[in-house]
Amino acid sequence: MNNLQALRASKSFSLNILPISYLKSRFWRDSLGKMMIPIDPGGGGIPGTQRAQDSSAPTPPTDNRWRAEPSLREVMALWLVTCLVFVTCVAVLRNYFELVDNSGDCSAYMAVASAIRHWNFHGLAVKHFWGLPYAMAALSLLTGVSDRTALLLICFVSSLAGVALAHRLWGGWIAGYFAILSFEWMQRSYLGGSEPLFVALVFGSFLAIRREHWPLAALLAALATVTRPLGIFLLVGIGLTLLWRRDWRRLAGTTAIGLVIGTLYVIPLARYFHDPLATVHSYEGTTASAGVPLFGIPFYAIIKGTILYPAPLTNLVLSFGWIFLVLIGIVAMLATEKFRNYARQHVPEMVFAAPYLLSLYCYNYPYWARGSFPRFAIPILPFVFLALERWLPKDRRLLWALTPVTAVLAASSALGIANVPGLIRRSLG
Q1: C-alpha pair distances (Å), 166 with each of 368, 383, 392, 418
Q2: pLDDT band for position 62 (50/70/90)?
Q3: What is the average per-residue pLDDT within 400-416?
Q4: How many Å is the Cα radius of gyration of the chain?
């Protein structure tokens, strides 16, 4: 009897030391475990199909690989697709070379290149800066190609180089969006314009600065300045940086390089046109800009030009879209700590970008201030994308989906959106 009581006591004790919650949880776990298939939290699936950690089986595809930053090869492939789609669309609907001759300032650049090649400036109307025509004339003399072919070759190669340099400077996402978003960039790259050469020279100078190759940086910046005048801001940035460092030897060398390039540029203008600043003054000689200073009150010319010179709705949407996007980018530059740190680390680039951005909104010729804003903004778009990088969609599938769409739209814009339906009917007929 005593033994039975002791046994009951021991069983009672062994049950009492286990909490009721433990018994309940164990009951349900054991019961459910028999009825349900356990799931591997690592994603291995049902028992028997789970992979060992050291298994060589391939990892199932996920979206993560599409969110990896685009490589240089991929960014160059994006550029190639925009090129092929753009040129094909134009060539199918219209004579491609005829459009090149009538696109933007191409005819003026070809006339100047021909005059330089023959060194005969009689009857030549001075327009724009001559950096691109000098390059065209040099290529034409070396290879025997026509001025138009030289223009296209320089623009194609410079455009690809600009995209590659953007990847080197700011990474794949910035370079990818730079390559595919701007209609004006594609039009100037594949139909001709000074912007691709200017961008390649400026970005090349940025890279040389980061590598402390100051003479090369000054040379590229000086060549950029004779291609488009706002390149002078980069020369100033180089000079101020070396002055701040008190690096007198390099400051003297880079200053000398800039002066030599500038002197060689103005000598023919002074001799044949009796005005060393003839290309600068050419901006003031047009009817739309007569008697008006080059820069003025911010937004004034943009608003005035919109009122005085009506434009199609598509053109207004496109130009104001870029106007507001760049403005949002400026706000982000001032507001985000990441970009402010970037600015402190790359002072010459900021000395170039800050006055360039201001000049976009202070450009005082109403005829061009709004309509040409997307073209003028091309060189500083990487800074805008960099300031907005945290909000940029980072999915390479989106880049590839947008690439043919933006290329077709850019080609349609070059042909004239209103003209495209008639051109399509004519090509089909």
Answers
A1: 27, 10, 16, 34
A2: low
A3: 96
A4: 31
SS3 call for 278? helix
Q: What type of residue sits at position 101?
A: D
| Unique residue bearing structure tokens 């950690």 | 53
Q: Where are the alpha helices (DSSP H) in 58-130?
A: 72-93, 96-101, 106-118
CA angle 126, 306, 327 (to 5 degrees): 90
Look over the chain and give the mean of its residue pLDDT values, rounded to a whole number.
87
pTM over 0.90: no
Number of continuous H segments (helices) and E segments (strands) in the chain: 23, 0
Phi, psi dihedral angles at 33 (to 5 degrees): -65, -30
Whether residue 323 contacts residue 370, with contact meaning beta carbons closer than 8 Å, is answered with yes
Residues 367-379: pLDDT tens digits?
Answer: 899 999 999 999 9
CB 393 within 8 A of CB 66: no
Q: Which amino acid is at 406?
A: T
| C-alpha of 104 from chain center | 20
Cα-Cα end-to-end distance for the chain? 113
